[in-house]
């Protein structure tokens, strides 16, 4: 399947590419939360985490770690958000697995935290039993 990211991978759409190897590539996000926001993208257009082979995921995390260290070293950010929007209901716009690495700064007011719910009495324990694996 063709996606905007396969077109970027193949150079049909321009991008600012930071890294490329046999498994993945890394570009700057065109609409950054903060400047330097980058995307670690699988070469193969797996839609979600569950579609992606384990060895590819392991490599993706290794490259994410290296990219994150580069952001800290170059931009001086002391923290990052590392995010996967996994499926359209979660806000995934491009159906091609990618990891966002977003540089964060004290007081930058970029609130990307999710709103939270409360469990009723006993609900968490019951759900926990159903979700054990
Ligand atoms: P998601 O919502 O997790 O699928 O994220 C898709 C990301 O891709 C968004 O943050 C977009 O800003 C980014 N994006 C879309 N088109 C491009 C492009 N041509 N170059 C770089 N980043 C892009």
> What is the helical fraction, as a range of percent?
25-40%
Main structural class: alpha+beta
Strand order of the largest sheet: 1-2-3-5-4
Distance between the termini: 32 Å
Q: Name the CATH homologous superfamily.
A: HIT-like
**What ions, cofactors and ligands are bound?**
adenosine monophosphate
Shape, principal axes of CA atoms: globular
What value does the Rg take, in angstroms? Answer: 17 Å
CATH architecture, please?
2-Layer Sandwich
Number of strands: 5
Task: Characterize the structure shown.
There is one protein chain. With 133 residues, the protein is an alpha+beta fold. The chain has a single domain (4-113), classed as HIT family, subunit A, CATH 3.30.428.10. Helix content is 28%, strand content 20%. The chain is built from three helices and five strands; from the N terminus they run αβββαββα. It has helices at residues 4-9, 54-75, 123-131; strands at residues 17-20, 24-28, 38-42, 79-83, 98-104. Strands 1-2-3-5-4 form a five-stranded antiparallel sheet, covered by helices on one side. A hairpin with a 3-residue loop joins strand 1 (17-20) and strand 2 (24-28). The longest helix is centred in the middle third of the chain and has 22 residues, at 54-75. It is globular and about 55 Å long. The model has no long low-confidence stretch (mean pLDDT 97). The protein binds adenosine monophosphate (AMP).
Characterize this entry briefly.
The protein has 3 helices and 5 strands; from the N terminus they run αβββαββα. It is of the alpha+beta class and 133 residues long.
